[in-house]
Write a sequence for this structure.
């Protein structure tokens, strides 16, 4: 399973997942988590985020299909770390592939908050791509 946030590192994360899938004859499931809408204004933001995610995920699907990789994607709503861990456990995922830093504000030399939560809380093995 690949957890993406459509940041600058998306291609690098996906490339790593594709090479692992080829090596192990695995399927890739990409998940994208959108924060749950609390107001009407945020609902419009979520609609835009869903459109953007579907466009990018469609492109990723074509790339995987060209390389003979089975691909699925799911858009989830809620807190990213919680939703990623929950999906991985319920979906009986073998490996979670995630970027070290996402689209959050802090870009220091530490793990991003979502990646940090997944690494520490997931019962599934996690590969962090830098």
């Amino acid at each position: 399973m690949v957890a993406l946030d459509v940041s600058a590192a998306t291609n690098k994360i996906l490339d790593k997942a594709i090479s692992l899938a080829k090596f192990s004859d695995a399927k890739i499931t990409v998940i994208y988590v959108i924060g749950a809408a609390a107001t009407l204004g945020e609902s419009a933001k979520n609609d835009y985020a869903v459109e953007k995610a579907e466009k990018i995920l469609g492109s990723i699907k074509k790339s995987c299909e060209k390389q003979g990789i089975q691909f699925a994607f799911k858009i989830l709503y809620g807190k990213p770390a919680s939703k990623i861990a929950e999906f991985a456990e319920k979906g009986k995922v073998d490996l979670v592939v995630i970027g070290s830093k996402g689209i959050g504000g802090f870009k220091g030399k530490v793990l991003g908050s979502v990646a940090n939560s997944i690494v520490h809380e997931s019962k599934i093995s996690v590969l962090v791509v830098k």
User: Anything to note?
Assistant: Confidence is low (pLDDT under 50) at residues 105-109. Strands lie at 2-4, 28-34, 71-77, 95-99, 125-129. The domain at 2-129 is CATH 3.40.50.620 (Rossmann fold). Residues 40-66 form the longest helix (27 residues).
